[in-house]
Design brief:
heterodimer, A: 149 residues, mainly beta, 5-stranded antiparallel sheet, 34% strand, globular, B: 390 residues, alpha+beta, Peroxisomal Thiolase, Chain A, domain 1, 9-stranded mixed sheet, 3-stranded antiparallel sheet, 14 strands, 33% helix
Amino acid sequence: MSEQIDDAALVERFPYAQIDHDTKHLYRGWLEKRLLINRCDECLRFHHPPKPVCPSCWSSSLTPTQVSGRGVVHLAMHLHQGAPAPDVDYSKSPHPVVAVELEEQEALRFSTTVIDCPLEDVKIGLAVELDWIDRFGAPFPVFRPRRDA
Amino acid sequence: MISRNPIRDEIAIIGVGSTGFSRDAGERSSKSLACEASIAAIQDAGLEKGDIDGIVGPMEPGGAIPHQMASALGISEVTHQSSPMPVALFGLIDAMDAIFSGACDTVLLYYSYQRLPWNSRSAAKDPFRRHFQMGVIPVPEAPDPAAAYTQWASRYIHDYGATREDFGRVALNMRANALRNPLAVMKTPLTMEGYLQARMIRDPLCMLDMDVPVDGADAFVLTTTERAREITRNPVVIHATSLGVVDKNDEDQLPDLSRHGQHVVVDALRAKSDLWIEDCDVFFPYDGFSIITLGWIENFGWCKPGEAGRFMAEHWDEKAGSVLIDGRVPMNPHGGSLSEGATRGSGHLREAVTQLRGDAGKRQVANARTAIIGCGGFFFNSQGAILRRL
């Protein structure tokens, strides 16, 4: 693992995120292009977004754990307008946003966009895998259709 | 599920006031709108400002907070004040609990709205609204409540084979009703063709699936039913209320549409109330987004999950251009948030009181005695109330 930047620098890298002591590990993971999901050391359940204790068993022994990045689109919409981002041009095409159910656990989901996929194929049931783009000079997790699917 | 309900019928709503709703109320502050509605509500109750000893007003960007309202209206001594979260029944429930507990006797409950700079171009040009800040500017993919309703609409369509027309009927119902309500912002008829051609915002939901930002205010006066009987012959009383939330309420983590805040609300109301949907004369399913309305129709048990579109079609009154359940019970006869204006439910509450008092003019439901309100959405602000005329 590379040397970690301090909290002030972390906030600078992700101006669009409300980072706190519960979520800082998630964003530090992004800088290394690793998607880290909180997992309880006691009951082994994952949860997301990150909480200060395990919501299942109340253990505070949690490990941000790298997940495979494989999953299936569970919710999907196509934004015709929305918040700005340098890689998004609503005038050219609607921007897909999905909640992907991760293969590690039922109903464990991560929300982002899908790249390299025709818009009409970004729908519920699409098998996807994790990839990374650059957003405001920092890595940003996205999904793409699974190449082995 | 809790069934204890000692407050049943003990608190009454004895005054209502409203500015009505518009795309632009002109050069007025949110506080100005709140004062107009509040004065109207206190006068409607037949009271004077010295009778008010509690003030409740939900937090809104740019909105007046309760002690500022005491100052603006010259309400001399107040023993209870609070600013609950937005969505109307948080305020109602706090106000009634305060009266029942003895924190105060008579509450002014006000709701004031201004179009926000980030969802109205004309509001963005108003220099006095520049200080309404959102905090960090989110990315397009941020799971926020507004977008999440669209995401779950996609799941509803996927799971039940719902069509755009199923959502469109919600919009058409509200519009036809709004045309009978002089307070409503929307003044022009809507057809299904018009709905299907409306600008897509977040596919699968279009502009007409989302509430319409407005300027305006509603206000209410509440007191004990005992005191209300001395003031008015037909007090409207609060029979049962509940809030509802489940654990996995982060917008994208809700396990599915079969158990969320609305279900908790309905189960609690049912356990607390002597009255249920077969007693309902006028039904208020919240419509901040059309998918929320479909949820309330199904979750109150009017029909099975996935059948709300068909239910509305089966109970459609061609002459009225809107839903009349069993030819009798309208849904949001004031036009709801989609067409009266985005009141976060205060319009639904105001219309419930107006109908139960028999003051709804040409949209009056004959002999309306019981109103059921399902307010808020799925994640963190589900709430319900049953109101009745004594």
